[in-house]
Every structure is written in structure tokens, then in C-alpha cells.
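Review form for a predicted model. The reviewer records the input and the model, then writes brief findings.
Reviewer: anonymous (R2)
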Amino acid sequence: MLTSSLAPRDPELTLGRPFCCTAQDRVMWYPVSSHWGLVLKRRDFITLVGGTAAVWPLAVRAQQPVMPVIGFLSSRSPRESRSVEAAFREGLKEAGYVEGQNAHIAFRWADGQFDELPTLAAELVRQQVAVIVAIGGGSAALAAKATTATIPIVFVVGFDPVTGGLVPSFNRPAGNITGMTLMSPALGQKRLELLRDLAPNAAVVAILVNPLSPDGVREIGDIEAAGQTMGLGIKIFNASTSSELYTAISAIAELRPDALLVVSDPFFLVRREELIGLAGRIRRPVMYPFREFAGSGGLISYGANISNAYRQAGIYAGRILKGAKPADLPVQAPTKYELVINMKTARALELAVPDTLLARADEVIE
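Model under review:
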């Protein structure tokens, strides 16, 4: 039995032997029904509980794994890239990653201003992202490669990545970079042949190219060679800004060629509605490089499915986050190209599209 010498002097606290703590903690033993227990001052109990509640979330957050950040570097703009961005997210999900759940995406858009890409790429490097997805044309890929030799890069480009200096080979890309290309050597010739089907008597074809784009410039040589083989006169017109685009279309209208071919380029893709509106003034068959143009009112397009390439880029990014090395992921090229014809535009131009061409189309927009 306890003696009276152990009776507390503080009427609010029953004292006894300290319980593993200092006197300042005010946590002490006292006798209740011949058993030992704990008594706290009410204000000390509230302070202890409140402090625990404040510390607990911090501890939980400290235990949560840090989400990897994917750098998304694009030459294009977010407004006109919703469908391909969704395709990228789909591929990322297939690889096991969903934004906000187990990964973050840091977007950087150049809106067709290629000179902004090096600065945007440097921002992603400073942010120490886990992987950079450089898409929307070769300029984004080249900017990313020039900025880092250590952060993995996944690209989508419109030219041959080997001759373009991105990788040494398709099967063994080496280094920290791999990705997808949308082009093949015979693509320019095939587009000219389709234009010839629309305009059998064509003798002169105007070519619209962005001279600042690595995608379009490399395509010109193939088109000129194909034109010479087909006996076509090829006239080149350059445009890299909105004002130059207006000037180029005006010059083409004065030339009155038999057809117009628009070369692959993210600048034209970003401004496709403006371009299609201007090209409509020349009232000639116009061949565009991707389905997005025909879907926006362009007459005809022939090219790779961009959404498929973006989806594959998402898959590659996810595989890299799981530990795969870019050097072990072969560069992929399209196995199929899509022919899309917009019959509403054809009727507006009073253009008769051959039944044989309609039968070959992958999609006919009515």
C-alpha cells in the first residue's frame, strides 16, 4: 500500500514514478483500485492530441513514394492537340501510368514557334523530369537531344531519324533517345501520284514547305526526284510565319498551278484551319500530309496516323519509367498510311473524284 508521502501536491495531477519521461511531460503513474494508470492534465492532453494530429499527416506524406514527372515537349499547341494528347495518355495508361495517380506530366508547348523549344527543353531538364517526350516534329526532338545526354528522350518526328542525326540506327538507337517516325522514303512520290489521280492532266505542282523545319526540308528532295520521274514541274514556296503563309498562298494563286502539295510540318498542322481557308482560294486540288487536315476541311490527305504514334510514345515513356533503357527500344516506323478524302470539299470545288480513288480511301468524309 502507498503511503501518504506519495500524495500529489498538485490537485490536478496525481504524481508517482515517472513513466519513461521527464517531469515536464506531466505523464505520471497513480493508483486506481490497486492498479497503475495514466493521468494527464486536460490542457496537456489536448496539446498532445493536437500535436499528434499535426505531425501524422506529415509522416504519412513522407512515407508516400514520389511520383515520376514526365516532360511533354511539343512544337504544337494544346488547343489543336487534344486528340493526340489523349492518345499519348492512352499509351501511358497501357504501360501502367495515369496522371495524378502515379505520375505527373509537365507540359511545354511551343505553339509552332520553333525558336522557343531550346528554352522549354532546358526548363524540363532543370525540373529533373524522369523522361522527356519530344513530339510535334523534329525540332522538338533535336532541341531535347541538344539539351540533355542523360535524361531519356522519346520522340515523334516527321523525317528519317538516322539521316536526321537523332539515332545511329532504327534497331539500336543507342544513347538516351528513341521513338517513332511518321515518314518513309516513298511517301512524297505516293502523294504526287494521288494528286495525279485527282488531276490527270497536271503539269505543274506547287509545294508549300516550312524552310525552318527539319521535317519538311528533308522531304523536298524526295518530292523533287519523284516529280522529275513523273514529268511534273515542281515549284517550291516557303512559309514559316502566318504572314509568310498568306504571301506564299497569294503567290501560288498567281502561278495557277494544277495542284498544291503541303509538306509535313507542325507549323502547318498548328495553323491548319488558317491554311485550308487560304488554300481554298486557289481552287485547285490540295494534298495534305495527315488526316487532321482532311478532318478540318482539306480535300485529301495521305500519311501516317499521328495518334497511333503518340500512343506508342506513351507506351515507350511508361516502359522507361519502369526501368527500360531507350537504347533497348527500337525506333518504330509506320506500317500503314491512311488515305482520307473530304467529299464535301470536293463538291465545293466541283471536283470529280474517281471511283477508283474513293474505293482505295481508308475514310471518306461526307
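Findings: The chain has 13 helices and 14 strands.
Further findings: Residues 25 and 137 are 65 Å apart (CA to CA).
Recommendation: see findings above.
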